[in-house]
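User: Last request for today: this protein with zinc ion, please.
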Amino acid sequence: MTAVATERLIKPHGGGLVDRTGERPDGVESLERVTLTSREVSDLDMIASGALSPLAGFMGREDYERVVDEMRLANGLVWALPVCLAVAAAPTGDRVALGDEGGNLLAVLDVDEVYEYDRAREAERCFRTTDEAHPGVARLFAQHPLYLAGRVTVFDRPTPEFAELAKDPAETRDVFGERGWRRVVGFQTRNPIHRAHEYLTKVALETVDGLLVHPLVGDTKSDDVPAATRVECYRVLLDGYYPAERVLLSAFPAAMRYAGPREAVWHAICRKNYGCSHFIVGRDHAGVGDYYGTSDAQLIFDEFEAHELDIEPIFFEHSFYCRTCGSMASAKTCPHASDDHVFLSGTKVRELLAAGEVPPEEFTRHEVAEVLIEAYRA
Ligand SMILES: [Zn+2]
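Assistant: Here's the final one, the structure of the complex with zinc ion:
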């Protein structure tokens, strides 16, 4: 039944869903070991689950170079960001064990090649800056000098922080299929959802069959709202204000790279693998500081033909509640002056919440505000 129902969904990027999970091979303890950073562990797990289809391992030089230069894999398929494994030295054998920083063995990698790369060039091309105050650039500049490429087989997957929200692409596709959804819009977030985001997810949902609320729960900057608090915010909002049969809440296990425009494309491609036909791209998607123009994450999609991505990006302006319109709106749909708009800066919202005050209902649902106030008290 499921196989038939999921046939109607968008095809994974490159045509098929990759599965790089497998049995733990004999003798893995005696292999040379490579220790992955938490970001690399997250990439490894996404390769295993097919979230990064068509990648079956960490990128070789040909793919890497073309991705950095042209946002394409060597075969021409659109791909926005390097997915590479940095090592201090070339391994001696043709197979290595991959482990995490806690000493757990997770996978084996069959060595394809080891190559040098240019950190400054990667930073300039992918992050549009070489400023080490940028968290993605800082990580890149601190990593080992060589990239190790090859297919991986993952035999031990990290325990997800929110087990009930962990769904691989094959699993979200099954859920969509079982619910009879064909057109599904994905929403990426790493922040609590306020009324503005509720509005745009619902505007998008009006035009498709279902909504995947897919918060990023991998590594973020330490000043982002903690994942546990955000997940609780999503739960109370969805329980109170969305029809259960039209929404799926699931965790997106990626680590933030803060690569702004390129990351928006990368996020869209990942969601295509999860079965989304549409993807919401707001202002400042995946940005940090003022490294990117507010529309850059939307404009970058113009660099591709629509059929190359297949998943359709849906662009949104900043939205707000307008007292004169009597509804949520944006500069596209409301002609009134900003005095009519209920808008609070992020700083102002944090001040209110830290003081135990609930922001206006037009800005945030009180259930969400209460979760945040509780978190500030703790
Ligand atoms: Zn208005």
